[in-house]
Amino acid sequence: MPVRTSRRVRSAALGVALAAGITATVCAAPASAREAPPARSHGATQRAMDAAVRDGVPGVVGTAVDGGRVWRGDAGVADLRTGRERGSEDRYRIGSITKTFVATVVLQLEAEGRLSLDDTVDHWLPGVVRGNGHDGTKITLRQLLNHTSGISNYTEDEAFGQRVFGPDFLKHRYDTYTPRQLVGIAMRHAPDFEPGASWHYSNTNFVLAGMVVEKATGHSYAAEIERRILRPLHLGATSLPGTDARMPQPSGRAYSKLSEETTGRTYDVTALNPSLAGSAGEMVSNSADLNRFYRSLLTGKLLPPRQMTEMTTTVVMDPAAPGDRYGLGLIVNKLPCGTEVWGHGGGIHGSSTEALTTKDGRHSLAFNFNGDWSGDSAAVVLAEFCGTAPADKPAK
What parts of the sequence cross the membrane (predicted)? Predict the structure, then answer.
């Protein structure tokens, strides 16, 4: 998701991508050459990427798969200092796309009979969700995964926001946070609503989901994602860095204004300790891996039919935009052209990512902006899936 201001970062970074009504989504399954539709032009997608760079994004890189045909596009630069162009194999931080991986593991555990979505949070994490009106005995795992728990979002805490999303980030970029610390920040605040009464995006939900995976398996959520998803799908560019602030290579740089303003100094925020996001948004990947992951998920290679039905059973995120719905770590949006896309988006310092697919897996798109204050990711989505591109406008 493109993050224009630190206020939006506080409420949505590591979180759901909502750009001009387009929510982040999923990837596509290649069809055989015999089944492939006529070749589609990606000129509109390239023009939308070019427009994002004119709007201020340092660089864009993405890959689309349509009926088995692969298209790679890029614009701008990976490194403002050297001028190196972005490359299709470059890795980048994917923020809240991590949530789909975590939800997939939870649903696999349900399929194995090791937990139930109707289990309460307190059953697995006694006493962890308690205080200021929070009560883990009344919140289910399903409500964590579809953001109907009402649990306060720790990234909306003002003190945390000042330390992590503003200029103080430069002093705290290497700080380590434990999951219990992040949940503790949320517990300082009252719930947003009674469990099940409404919908509100909360990164705390998925920090807790990661803790449940560890309690149920005896292994970290990172180890379970690696064993259950990354290795079987051969996602060699995807990793869970834990507390390692370095980016694996190849990769470019990530940039932020660290401000609510879209002008002023641009900071290199590439190095950061991703424990500030944890199981809500720590992962690193690239466009090819994201397409493969979502294609495999949506075409039934990771979950049995019953769990896939659970994952794709959705709730309305915003009554004013009923076409945007949230499942279990998965978003569906009906685009203006009528195409329905599934997936997720993720924003974290200097990195805004979308990964999308049609439900049949035939048409997918994954792309990344390496700046968090500008650019229109919705325009790229609409260009790829609807063939509409922003009108050309002069460079700034």
Answer: none
